[in-house]
Design a protein that fits this description.
single chain, about 80 residues, mainly alpha, 3 helices
């Protein structure tokens, strides 16, 4: 009897790839769920701290300040061609 008869079947690359893609999808879903859960918990903590310390919008302005959008540069006007 040879060793090949007793060896466990080795999964081919396609099966391994399919399993890895499935695992990645499952992990992505789990990450999204955990992000949502921690966001809700963190928001509750922030709300509690705001009510405890009586923070106002003025107090939090530097933290909540939205970044200004960059203005697009003006397009230069096209030069007129000299007519001969």
């Amino acid at each position: 009897m040879s060793d090949l008869d007793n060896a466990a079947p080795v999964p081919n690359a396609s099966n391994q790839l399919a399993a890895a893609i499935k695992a990645q999808a499952e992990l992505s879903a789990k990450i999204e769920a955990l992000l949502t859960q921690t966001r809700e918990e963190d928001l509750a903590t922030v709300k509690q701290l705001i009510s405890t310390h009586g923070f106002s919008q003025t107090d939090l302005r530097s933290v909540l300040k939205a970044k200004a959008s960059r203005t697009t540069p003006r397009k230069s006007t096209s030069r007129r061609r000299k007519s001969s």
